[in-house]
Amino acid sequence: MKLRYNSEIISGSVFLVAAVVLWLLIPSQINTLETSEINAQTVPRIVIGGMGIFSFCLLLQGLFTLPKHEVVVTRAALTSDKFRKELRSIVYAVIFLAYLVAITFAGFLISTILLTVAILIFYGARRWYYYAIPLAMVGIVYIIFKMLLRVSLP
Question: Splitting the chain (154 residues) into consecutive groups of 10 residues, what average pLDDT does each group show?
């Protein structure tokens, strides 16, 4: 099976939709009582506006370029190194999505420890100090923010 696609059109349209949705969510997510021009919504509007502008430019670039990428999906393509690299990227993204879900249920400390261990196992870390250093850093960050600065962590 042959698929023809243009990655600029796909990524430009996906991020343009994301920018529009985020732009529309700003007033409901960032409540402010300030009436001045610069308030708590200013920096998110600048960042999301830039994302929307660059996504639109990428979409236009994809529309006006002629060469399209062609992907041939065969059994050999599914066992190639390129596909394995892409699959590893997808698994890595799924690990972070699981972290986002876990942080709401288990809290910062437990979910971040699980994330750290999962990433180290994913990359095949074997030595004990590869685990000890990041786990100690998670503990130090927790102590600094929770105990010393009294910031509530999720």
Answer: 72 94 90 82 93 94 76 72 84 93 92 93 90 93 90 81
Decide: 32 and 40 in contact? Cβ < 8 Å: yes
User: How many angstroms separate the Cα of 57 from the Cα of each of 7, 19, 69, 105?
Assistant: 13, 13, 19, 39
Residue 109 has φ and ψ, to the nearest 5°, of -65, -55
73-90 residues labelled b (16+ CB within 10 A) or e (exposed): eeeeeeeeeeeeeeeeee
Report the interhelical angle of 108-122 vs 81-106 (nearest 10°): 160
Instruction: Report how far residue 125's alpha carbon sits from residue 118's, in angstroms, rounded to the nearest whole number.
Output: 10
Exposed, middle or buried by CB within 10 Å (0-12, 13-18, 19+), for 22? middle
Q: Which two tokens stand for residue 52?
A: 């929307």
Express each pLDDT in 76-90 by its tens digit.
Answer: 777 778 778 888 889
Which pLDDT value is given to residue 103?
Answer: 92
